């Protein structure tokens, strides 16, 4: 397995410069009081397409040779990764195909189409998405853009971590801990590698849906674990079935602690972000914030970074979060 | 009347540096498509206290001599201005008194108290808030912090305009037009002075609640006009009774056009900011965005700046905005 380090992330950040948004870090004394620590929120919800995913997708595309780019890319997510692939491909003029089940929500299909992606529908009762994508790769020479288990993807996501380093250093702040929402581990492995290279003693926490901590179990066992069945959770952005092999490999180099939050806690954090930060955050994107608000780690009085990783939330779910307060 | 110009705003920006947030400018290709022009949104909703108001309030306080600062300041708003005064005073260690009616919403009183302000309640049936404030000024030597009709306030608000100039120039963008939400005119006069000094030919639009365009009427008549009765509107942030004399005086130097949006249009813009920008914007803060979305001005294909001036919105109103879509 080829190696992955801070140079990989620095190269990604340079490649991505000009294409992505340098998202702001938001502070709030009221949030600090609510969490009992000094919190810096990295607002990746304000990233193009409303989540960090475009960083990795675009870094992968920009790493391809001209012929591959000309033929195009394919993926099979209609969620944040699919939107990132579709929007990233449009930014650099690369054809993109998104493979979706015929049962996909119309709004997600429309959104991928809006970015100019070609949609290939398959019948989930009779076909596997992996097979549909493989046929397209073979027939048309498309390159698959994986969601997380890939060093270029991880390096792209890690560029958010480099920004955190630069933004906090500019303020003269050295954080004691960082909390990163985690599913496959692309964001967590990239960001933790980046911040550990600047602050080797920073405490790193990953946050997953409570009861479905596949990455925490993977870290404990040293082998990628699955959530089977996949969790039924409002945190859909971090509810994938499997921990990534390469992200796990990288996370195992560091002392990473796992935290879990439940749906109610995530929705409360969504509401808190509405009230105190004026940020629209999706439940899975608010998991780190929820862990802080619910004191899941012993961080009283410390200086902490939490990543709000996405803001793509159904209006009905959002209204439910607000009504819960 | 002393004069007001770009030097006043530059001095304010220097004074405020380190105390306030340099709020980001947000772009979205989907928003551009919805508006039919290239839109740069200045997200003052992400400013400390959730609105631009702390800029002016803090600039006014920082302009006071040490004795006055030591005695403290007073104002009588529980809305965005009051929050700005309370939070600004705390940042610089200045005592602040907020005069509020006994009928004020508990959450607003609590929020002012949270920032450390002293609350003085009055009975709105038997007392005038101006008189209560005046008594405090005389008895305790407090300085009144006005909401808009003051050059230091206007200069502070104008610092948002200077940031727009710097942020767009850094991107190589020269805008054709700017839209600013307007009530008393503090923000509009400051921001328009700032951007006109950089781009003298920029089109300047102010946006008010439709049917209650007191500043547009003031600009037409040359004399400050009132809304009597004050509008019943969901855009409470821009529903004050009177146009400011000094803001009007400054706005009259420029060719400023007035636009109006109704409640339904403002709520639609709140929902659009949720979906496409992931920003929590209050209805009055979304008026400029609403004017763009509803094509209130002839700006097709142009490069336009809209200020989202605040994000302090009741969760019930917000849910209503989302449900309307």
Characterize this entry briefly.
2 copies of one chain form a homodimer. The first copy, chain A, is of the alpha/beta class and 325 residues long.
Q: Can you put this structure into words, describing what you see?
A:
Two copies of one chain form a homodimer. Chain A is α/β, with parallel strands linked by helices and 325 residues long. Chain A has two domains: 6-52 and 150-323, Rossmann fold, CATH 3.40.50; 54-144, Rossmann fold (3-Layer(aba) Sandwich), CATH 3.40.50. Chain A has helices at residues 6-16, 29-35, 53-62, 66-71, 80-92, 106-114, 129-140, 151-170, 186-198, 214-221, 245-251, 263-277, 287-293, 315-323, and strands at residues 25-26, 38-43, 73-75, 96-101, 118-122, 143-144, 177-181, 203-209, 256-261, 303-308. A six-stranded mixed β-sheet of chain A has the order 1-2-10-7-8-9, sandwiched between helices. A four-stranded parallel β-sheet of chain A has the order 5-4-3-6, sandwiched between helices. In chain A, strand 4, helix 6 (106-114) and strand 5 (118-122) form a beta-alpha-beta unit. At the A-B interface, helix 2, helix 12 and helix 14 of A face helix 2, helix 12 and helix 14 of B.
Assembly state of the chains shown: homodimer
- Summed up, the domain count of chain A is 2
What's the total count of β strands of chain A? 10
Strand order of the largest sheet of chain A: 1-2-10-7-8-9
Percent in strands of chain A: 5-15%
Cα distance spanning the termini of chain A: 48 Å
State the CATH architecture of the largest domain in chain A: 3-Layer(aba) Sandwich
> What is the C-level CATH assignment of the largest domain in chain A?
Alpha Beta
CATH topology of the largest domain in chain A: Rossmann fold
Radius of gyration of chain A: 19 Å
* Share of helix of chain A, binned: 40-55%
């Amino acid at each position: 397995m080829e190696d992955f380090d801070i140079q990989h992330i620095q190269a990604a950040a340079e490649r991505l410069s000009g294409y992505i948004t340098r998202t702001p870090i938001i502070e709030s004394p009221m949030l600090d009081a609510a969490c009992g620590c000094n919190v810096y929120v990295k607002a990746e919800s304000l990233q193009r397409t409303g989540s960090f995913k475009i960083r990795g997708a675009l870094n992968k595309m920009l790493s391809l040779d001209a012929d591959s780019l000309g033929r195009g890319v394919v993926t099979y997510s209609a969620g944040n990764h699919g939107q990132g692939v579709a929007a990233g491909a449009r930014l650099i003029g690369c054809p993109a195909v998104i493979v979706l089940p015929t049962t996909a929500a119309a709004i997600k299909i429309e959104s991928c189409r809006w970015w100019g992606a070609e949609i290939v529908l398959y019948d989930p009762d009779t076909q596997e998405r992996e097979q549909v994508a493989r046929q397209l790769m073979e027939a048309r020479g498309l390159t698959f853009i994986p969601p997380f288990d890939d060093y270029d993807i991880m390096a792209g996501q890690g560029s958010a971590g480099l920004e955190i380093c630069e933004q906090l250093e500019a303020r003269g702040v050295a954080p004691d801990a960082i909390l990163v929402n985690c599913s496959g581990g692309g964001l967590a492995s990239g960001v933790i590698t980046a911040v550990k290279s600047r602050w080797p003693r920073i405490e790193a926490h990953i946050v997953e849906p409570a009861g479905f901590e596949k990455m925490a179990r993977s870290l404990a066992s040293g082998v990628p674990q699955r959530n089977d069945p996949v969790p039924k959770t409002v945190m859909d952005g971090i509810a994938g079935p499997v921990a990534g092999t390469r992200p796990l490999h990288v996370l195992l180099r560091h002392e990473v602690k796992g935290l879990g939050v439940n749906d109610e806690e995530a929705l409360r954090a969504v509401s808190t972000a509405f009230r105190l930060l004026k940020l629209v955050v999706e439940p899975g994107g608010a998991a780190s914030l929820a862990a802080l608000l619910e004191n899941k780690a012993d961080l009283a009085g410390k200086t902490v970074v939490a990543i709000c990783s996405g803001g793509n939330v159904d209006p009905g779910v959002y209204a439910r979060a607000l009504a819960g307060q």
